[in-house]
């Protein structure tokens, strides 16, 4: 628990737990389907493993998360109290779309982008067998420029090192523009027409690729005028 506000107000009591740095983002990850430590960590890539472990343990003690044995590891599953935060996190996301303002350069995190895109892929639309999509972000730091998404009808995985499979199609994109596509601020076609995104590969894959990728759950939220 964070420092007490020493107020009987229920908002104050809730925020004693929830307003510590990273806590709500961890809950966002759990609400999005992450259960294992490394899955949650990939959704908060700039958080140290030590702090993530501390925050998860705090949430377990508070009764918001249940830690369950899973082979040699553990699963972190939201309790009923944690699930009740779903509309709270959703409302904060909608508010952020309306009022949080422009993205700064330091907000453009390719690790989080690839993790979010991975779990919103229409695997049913991907060709049979293995399809490997290489994303190249020339404007990202050197260590974060190349990402491989390995797709098949059963699921998808994201790799930050070459998995050794033949690349089916390559997407070269301005990182900010790719994030704007994910957020629903612009469409694939508009970004391609502007030269911010280029797709290379067989024509059938080039045409089909944008349809494989969904957008943020909040992409349909109306933007302020």
TrEMBL record:
Keyword Protein biosynthesis on entry: no
Protein name: DNA-binding HxlR family transcriptional regulator
InterPro entries from the UniProt entry: ArsR-like_HTH, HTH_HxlR, SCP2_sterol-bd_dom_sf, WH-like_DNA-bd_sf, WH_DNA-bd_sf
PANTHER family: TRANSCRIPTIONAL REGULATOR, MARR FAMILY, TRANSCRIPTIONAL REGULATORY PROTEIN
Gene Ontology molecular function, alphabetical: DNA binding
Taxonomic superkingdom: Bacteria
Upper lineage: Bacteria, Bacillati, Actinomycetota, Actinomycetes, Streptosporangiales
Provenance organism: Actinomadura livida
Coiled-coil positions: none
Keyword flag NAD: no
CDD domains: HTH_ARSR
Keywords: DNA-binding, Transcription, Transcription regulation
Boundaries of every HTH hxlR-type domain copy: 9-104
